[in-house]
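Entry 14. Ran structure prediction on the chain below.
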Amino acid sequence: MNKKQAEDFIYKSYIKAQRYQDYNLKDSKKRRNDLTFDLIRKKSNTPSVVVTGSKGKGSVSKMISQILQTKYTVGLMTSPHIVDFCERFQVNGGKISTEDFIKHICFIAKEIDDLDALLPKHICISPMGIQTYMALHYFEEKETQFNIFECGKGAKYDDVNNVKHEYAVINTIFLEHTRELGKNIEEIAEDKVHVITGEQKCVYVAKQEKKVLDIIEKQAARHQVSLKVYGKDFFAENIKYTKEGMVFDVTIGEEKIENITIPLLGEHQAMNCAIALTVCKDIFNNEILWKNKSLIKENLRNINWPGRMEVLSQSPFMMLDACINSASCENVIRVLDYLNIEKTILIVGIPDDKDYIGVVHSMKKKAIKTILTKSQNPHYIFTKKQQEKLKEQGIETTWTSSVKEAIAIAKNENYPIVILGTTSVVAEVKNEYM
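Output, structure tokens:
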């Protein structure tokens, strides 16, 4: 088995079943996370954190990992990746080697194949379940002492949630993945709150709409799990933008950590860091190591998390973000306002079934020209129907068939360039600049 075959194995069951499934069905009608429950539970022998939410799950997961590394050997599983599939599996910040990735897929292949062979043609083993099971094998070999797992879209039908986790994070929930999770924010929240299973020592909650927080509180009460909530139990303050990233203070209960620097842009990243620090403070249980915060602050200062409000170049100015919905555009606009950038060339690479319309509308006050582009990844659908739909709404766009073409057109305009898109588009942009 080579690396491509190992990656393909993760999606094999899904691709086989996909042709027999109704694309428009919700996760509740076609996802079967029960299939991997026993496999994942038998390997869940290490204390873990599971992170869900609508945006910033990966950033929070990375920050928790970065902080815990000051004491523990830490496994981290996130998705999707930006450039290399192996980025999804890290131990103390280092991604799994190609050799180990192939080896551990081979370890689990027979179990997965035997299970898949028993399933009806329209039922599959989720790719998230397979990669979670593989990650647990890898982390066990590396003797990790703490593991962090980022959920996919939701939690209730997400195989990641099968991992036994003593701690959980619910980042901000907003309207997204409506086809799979629910038609309104309440239905989406009802899915994601299932990260609270009753096994948690504590659950950490980001800033939420009141109706979402009510749903979270009801789930926590049902399982008798305590919550710590942003704005009440912890918060970021004195948030400042600098050329190096964000500088801010975090208050947790009666304690304040001052002058934290992270090389990521956006106030939301300061809030993400406040959640991560609160989780880790409880895990460290106020040990002496926590009292000596210099190493923690150094690890946060050295975070490498590409494709998240990343400045690729200054001349021309080019910023890249894995933004696929209108709600995330607010953070992009805030960053541009701080940088005093009023007009941009906007490149949008978002699949047909995601919120490309919302993103273009949200960014139109900053965009003097909008260029639509597509990924070469065959798993995503990008068509010129996007251009037609936007024209019906009075927005003229330029259609391009590749990231390279879009960037070439944008560079001829002599304006700052903002690129927003799904992670496969982000990866292709990064490949152009590596």
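The longest helix spans residues 98-116. Will compare against last week's run tomorrow.
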